[in-house]
Queue: 2 jobs
Job 1
Amino acid sequence: MPFRDGTGPRGMGRGRGMGRGRGLGMGRRMGSSSGENSTKTATIVIDPEKCTGCGKCVSVCPTGALSLVDGKAKVDQLRCKGCRACVAVCPTGAIT
Ligand code: SF4
Ligand code: SF4
């Protein structure tokens, strides 16, 4: 009598974790086309032709981003937070 011992359950495992396809929280992109503000680029621009070196912008900048270099205002973009206070005080419109 062929007593096969080994024909036992071979596929008992059910639920093979196919992944439930969770389609819900795909995460919306905020509509900004690739690359958010990871790298900050020029927040303000100083026109050296217009700058008279009066230093007003330097004194109003809350972050110390501005300084006078060779009689012209210069901005440290890494410090600038874009408040534009300097733009408001510049008498010559050198900062945009
Ligand atoms: S925009 Fe604001 S933080 Fe930036 S340089 Fe001007 S005053 Fe400073
Ligand atoms: S306020 Fe305007 S003119 Fe005066 S230093 Fe700054 S950028 Fe130059």
Job 2
Amino acid sequence: MSGIGYKVAMHNETAAMKVDELKQTLIQRKAELSERQERVARHTRHREEPLPPDFAEQAVELENGETLVALDKKMSRELVQIDHALHRIEVDQYLDCETCGGPIEEQRLIALPHATLCIRCANGSSARSIPRTTH
Ligand SMILES: [Zn+2]
């Protein structure tokens, strides 16, 4: 998919194209995850179903089903995040941080297309348990 036929709004051309690219990435990733998840589910139910080769490293630990379950959960979580990000694109809030409303850094979205927080808020989230005394 290259740029032929891009219809880009007059304002903020670069960002619009970037979002479109990231949207494609998200859609692809979603399809990939759905397929993998399906395979994991089949493997969990019927052990004869072979795992895709790129599961090889996880497969080492597959003596019990636990790793697959964990993997499945991880993929489910990511799928939810991807759906959420796609929705944010639809409603034109993709570039807005969900916590502070500020812009999410472009580099961050490129590295993590389903990010919903700006770097500052994402980093701050680990400190969230500290009670705010400043009211
Ligand atoms: Zn923020």
